[in-house]
Write a structure and sequence with these properties.
Strand 2 and strand 3 form a beta hairpin. The longest helix is centred in the middle third of the chain and has 10 residues. The chain contains three helices and five strands; from the N terminus they run E-H-H-E-E-H-E-E. The strands form two sheets. A three-stranded antiparallel sheet has the order 1-3-2. Strands 4-5 form a two-stranded antiparallel ribbon. The protein is an alpha+beta fold. Helix 1 packs across helix 2.
Length: 77
Amino acid sequence: MPKLFKMNEVAKELKTSREYAYKLVNKGLLPSLKLPRLKVREEALTEFKAKYEGYDLSDIEAIKEIELDSIGVDEDA
């Protein structure tokens, strides 16, 4: 049986706030089910993390690729 995460568990998995996890769902970035409260399938969470790896999601309205030079990382190191 697939594992379902409650929203507080989603937030914990993503190391973010519960409110931010709800924003991801409301924006359509993270699929969810309502049973009667919102739940996220483990597979959906795994797919979300893989899809957005390397992206800056700090502003959900302006998702962009992470630029290493903008975060102080030397690509040659």
